[in-house]
Amino acid sequence: QGQLVESGGGLVQAGGSLRLSCAASGTPNFSIWGWYRQAPGKQRELVATITGRGRTDYAGFVNGRFTISKDNAKKIMFLQMNNLQPEDTAVYYCNGRYPPGFDVWGQGTQVTVSS
Q1: Could you tell me how far CA 114 lies from the centroid of its own chain?
Q2: CA 51 – CA 96 distance, rounded (Å)
Q3: Which segments of the chain have a pLDDT < 50?
Q4: 100: cis peptide before it, omega within 30°?
Q5: pLDDT over 90 for what percent of the chain?
Q6: Of the residues 19, 40, 73, 113, which has the maximum number of CB atoms within 10 A of its CB?
């Protein structure tokens, strides 16, 4: 099954930027990659997805602030987050899905946005 390892989280002031990375090792080729987040006391929610062919999709709250991308050769996915707001504070998880519906999750990286 392999593993996913996130990096790039941290503390940033409102209006700042962070770039998250998710590196895959020993995993099968994913049909879709995704970023999810979970804030304290809330359910995990989808942030963005990217398919093997590069089609992207974003949650409504992203509102043009985040960009998901991937490097197929290196099996790394990215999430560029700009204009971060305190409500973006959460643990961010990367996910890879492969047929017929198996998921691989990373351990999560904390993003904290101060006002």
Answers
A1: 20
A2: 10
A3: none
A4: yes
A5: 90
A6: 113
